[in-house]
Amino acid sequence: MTDLSDSDLLARARSGDDEAFRLLVIRHEPVVAATVIGMLGRGDDAEDVGQETFIRFHHALHDFREESALKTYLVRIAVNLSLNALKRRRRLSLRFLSRDAAAPLREPAVLPPAEEEAEERRSIVRRAVGLLSARHRPVVVLRMLQDLSTKETAEALGIPEGTVLSRLSRAMKELEATLAPYMRSGAITEDR
Amino acid sequence: MNDDIGLWQLISDAHPAGDVRFDAGFADRVMSRVAARQGDDDLTLEQAIARQTRRLLPALAAASLALTVWNWWSVRGTTESPIAAAFGLQPVTIAAALGSGVLVGGEALQ
Q: A125 and B11: CB-CB below 8 Å?
């Protein structure tokens, strides 16, 4: 059954074939995982949002019209659920943690040994992405990390292509400003 | 422009590339949640009410018990019947019944 197209698997899943739905989950797990982990980072809530994405999809199997690609449809659910999770997280952090999570970005870290340097650099960049606003983060995750086209990103987010471009431009400026101290200190470099 | 390309590359490189997946067994976990939810959807109204009632039963029982103990405790040392106190029953006398005006014809008797 693994060689069946999405449409065939969808038709089977709609008629109650759980194995067909399971194959759709396995097939589209990477795109949902990349979206959710890009938005939230790895963790329990990322897994939970991933599961909830497919549960919502299962619930809407009969409503899903194949005008848009299944990938785009799933990404849209994943982004919306991730944004909700971010809101919950922000409420919790405001209640318990204040802004400690952002603290490491204020002072550039001391350069670690070469082996750890790459990981440290990635960690800094991931945190910078994590500091983006809820409006800019999905655009960066879909367009820059998942390499979706502007059109696909616009479809997944339900916004015009022009809005994708303007949000991306603002997000880039935001990232540049956040990462500038690290680039200056040499903690991260562009020319690798 | 070159700065943008460099930044783009930097951001792309910082995130896992290729086949990103959740922990092993993700599809199985999704399927068991789907099955659980399907079970909920298949319930009849009576079954759904019975299930909700069963869930609430311990809390209702605990609340009733707490209220009973409170009532009983609040009249200790008085002449009031412990049973009446436990259930919060008001002592009924002919005078009280007639005075309440609740009884049909109570006014006539007064």
A: yes
